[in-house]
Each structure stands twice: as C-alpha cells, then as structure tokens.
Amino acid sequence: MRREEQLGLDGMPSRLYACTPTRLSTWLSCPRLYRMSYLDRPAPRKGPPWAHNSLGASVHNALAGWWRLPQAQRTVPAASGLLERGWISEGFASDAQSAGARDRARGMVEEYVAALDPADEPAGVERTVGARTDRITFSGRIDRLDDRRSANGGRELVVVDYKTGRRPLSTDDARSSLPLALYAVAAGRVLRRPCHRVELHHLPTETVHAWEHTPATLDRHLGRAEDIAAECAAADQRYRDGLTPAGQDEVFPPSPGPGCGWCDFRAVCPEGSAATPARRPWDGLEPFPAD
Ligand code: SF4
Known about the structure:
Layout: E1 17-19, H1 21-29, H2 31-39, H3 51-68, H4 76-85, H5 95-114, E2 124-132, E3 136-149, E4 155-163, H6 171-176, H7 178-191, E5 195-202, E6 207-212, H8 215-241, H9 245-251, H10 270-275
Parallel strand pairs: 1-3, 4-5
Antiparallel strand pairs: 2-3, 3-4, 5-6
Helix pairs in contact: 1-2, 1-8, 3-4, 3-5, 4-5, 7-8
The structure holds iron/sulfur cluster.
C-alpha cells in the first residue's frame, strides 16, 4: 500500500510533483517539446491549427454533448445536429474541404451512437479525476467513464477513450497506455469503485480495443509514472535554476523523428525541421495521424 504522503527528513510532508498524464507523455516523446510546452514563458509561437485536431475535437464535443442530453433526446439525429453545430473549421484548406471532413465526421458519430444504448448512463462524461501517490499528484480528464455490470455480478467502472485518427489501433495500445492506466487508478480512487478495464473506441474503424488491468499492472504503470515524474521534476528544477542555451539542450534534448512533422513547434526547432518535411495544416486528414 502506498503511503498517502512522503515525509521529509524534518517529518514534514515533502512536496508532491503535480502533473497530468499528457505532461509525462510529452516528456517521454521529446524533452525539448516538453520544455517549450510547459516551461518556456512566453511559450514559443505554435504553428497554425491542424485540421485533424479540429475534426477530433468536434467529434469529442458532439459525443460529450449527446450524453448530456436528457435520455429521451439521445438519438442519432441529435448527434448529427451536435456535430454540425459544433463543427470546428480551423486548419482546413477550404470551406469545401472542411465540409467534406464534417460529413465524414458526422457519419462516424452517427454510426457510433446508433450502437449505443441511451439508457446506459455513464458515471462521467469528460470527467476530471485525480489521485496521488507517495511521490506525485496527477489529474486528467476522461472522455467517458462507464458504469457496467461486472463478470461477478457487481458493478465496475470502465475508462473509455475516443479515437478519431486513421492509424489502426491494437489491444497493445490500450494495454501500454500510461494515461489510460492513470485514469483507471484515479477513477477507482475518486469513486471508490473497482476500475480495471480501459478501452480505446476507434470511430473510423468502429472497433474497440480493450485491456483488463490487474492491481499489479496498474501499480506498474503508477511506478513508471513516478519515475518519469522524477525526471521531469529534476529537469524543471534545473530550468528554474537557470540554464544556458547549451544547458537547455543538454537537459531538454530534442528527439527528432517522424512525429516532428506534426509538432506545433517544428518551425522553431532546427533538428525537428531537418528530420521531416513541413506538413500543411490539413495533411493529417489523409491519412490521419495518431490522436
Ligand atoms: S520538432 Fe521534433 S525534436 Fe523538435 S520539439 Fe518538436 S518533437 Fe521535439
């Protein structure tokens, strides 16, 4: 059992590192991106909005709005209307391209909600949950938290994450996802109910990729999160202490790779610019990158 707080040498609680799963994942993907996203102030200027992000956000908002409707109003046409009215048109090459993407997104949402039971009231929609361990405190927002009958006849919470990218997903994506595991831990603690199952709902392929965690696998993810957070905390401290430009690159090295093409800060990152060709804001529509 993890202690609620870690006591310092003087017996006083030591400060916990506050983070989100996204912050930890950003550190893992690229420390320079982490620095520019979370530490540099003012933050470097980002590139223009991405069309595929607009599509993803529009779908997420429509599904959240659908669940917030009274049960009798949770119909397929209602979902279409929410998608239409909430469509985010940033990042598209033209109105015609935006309209085509909107039609495709509306189709995805319609097919998805047609398979749902409006009476399956979720335990939460876009619900923020948080928890802490000996070393960190973390919070994050869950797309949907289901309240389902478990195999033993009781009730259990299930973490549901919507995905709209074109990249095919697998069970391994659900199993290895640090954010999903942390959401499960936090949901279980906040609602004081069992929460071990995590699911990726991939709307373009109408597939669900699920993983059933055990207390041991959740604990492993927590330990990993604590280790990553310790690296972040040490790097944050060195940043606060003051770093030369060379020191910044030593503590926050770039991690150039194929993903740089989709990085918001590619234009101000020489290594990332050299690693990939420039992408246009709508290039992620065909095919979509991972979201
Ligand atoms: S462009 Fe690539 S290397 Fe540069 S900050 Fe972004 S992800 Fe990191």
